Amino acid sequence: LEFISTISYRDPLVGIISLFSIVLLVWLLNYAINRYKSIQKSKQLERFVENFITSQNSSEIEFEKLVSEYPSSAKMLFVLANGYFLSGEYEKSARFLTLILKHTAKNDKDTTVNVMLTLSRSYIRLGFLGRAKAVLIELLHLQPRNEAALKELVSISARTNEYSDSLGATEALSEINNKYSKYADFFHAMMALKNGKLQEPVLDLNPYFTRERAKLLLVNNELRVLFDLASQNNNAKYLTDILWQTYPSDEHMEQIRLSSELSQIFGAKGLLECEKYDSFELEVMSQIHDKNIADLVFKYRCNCCSKEELDYFAICKKCLTLSSCEIEPVLAKKSPNVFSLESFS
Ligand SMILES: [Zn+2]
User: Fold this and answer.
1) Which residues of the chain have pLDDT under 70?
2) Residue 40's pLDDT is what?
């Protein structure tokens, strides 16, 4: 204090000290306000989360109480949880079924198996294929020849294109019923294809393998062999989109004219005169191919459930039918303003 009283207020030191005091005061005030704000914010977040947890779990808490009070009534509780599954509330059915598995007596094997099967189906609907697979494998430990579980396991493999994991499941299925043996053959052939060992005998198994061979021939420019393959056993209808990309020379035209399907495809391209067309789109294309106003694009549709995919498929991911993909040519208008590499020529 003595120091302060000895210096005159005109001293420049007073100005500096008061400036620093003001800066310090502002900083402290700002810090306190920010701290208060962040505390309020975290409280608000806590309240929100609390609210979220209690509101979402109230029915779950009730259910858990029910399950722990009546551990021997798994069958009845399963009916309740299955109701959620049937009404499309898969998240709820998955949670409730897990609670049943956790609390109830395991001596009722049939109900446990049913609970696990519906749990795996709930996970499949929710998109958790890995979890669904784990539940199914656990179920098959309990009941190795459960047809429904084996089928779900095979369907997961078909959806994810992972065939090696479910080879055993397809074999078990074909032992239960011979109608499933084509799935086992198909899975074996898909694995061979993945390992680069596509063999001639599998070509008949699924048009998918014929297409793989055709693609290879196209890449290697073996057009004569490709057109031969397309002329056999009505293969052309599985290869329309691949054939549409080829540019045959004069030496191939005689070979093409021998097949009605090939004549229609290359007639639509304007390479030969074709009298009769089965497809409306190909016929229209044959009339306007030289006007450069339209092109053909291709759609891939399951002839059992009508599901469409972006590319050709060997097995329908929705209804699991083998060899059900149909190629549908569609006319697409060419826009004159589109800037593409072709516009250079
Ligand atoms: Zn289908």
Assistant:
1) 1-9, 45, 48-57, 105, 199-202, 336-345
2) 85
Q: Residue 207's CB: how many other CB atoms inside 10 A?
A: 23
Ligand 1 centroid vs 231 CA: distance in angstroms? 27
Instruction: Return the beta strands (E) in the chain as ranges.
Output: 294-302, 308-309, 325-333
Pairing of strands 308-309, 294-302: antiparallel
Cα dihedral sign for 217, 223, 229, 234?
positive
Compute CA distances 167 → 91, 135, 257, 277, 321, whole Å: 30, 18, 43, 43, 17
Q: Say what the pLDDT of residue 300 is.
A: 96
What is the Å distance from ligand 1's center to 266 Cα?
A: 30
How many whole angstroms from 264 Cα to the centroid of ligand 1?
A: 28
At residue 162, the pLDDT reads: 84
End-to-end CA distance of the chain: 93
3-state DSSP assignment of residue 27: helix
Dist. CA 124 → ligand 1 center (Å): 17
What pLDDT shows up at residue 340? 64
Q: What is the pLDDT of residue 220?
A: 93
Taking the centre of ligand 1 as the mean of its atom positions, its distance from the CA of residue 303, in whole angstroms, is: 7
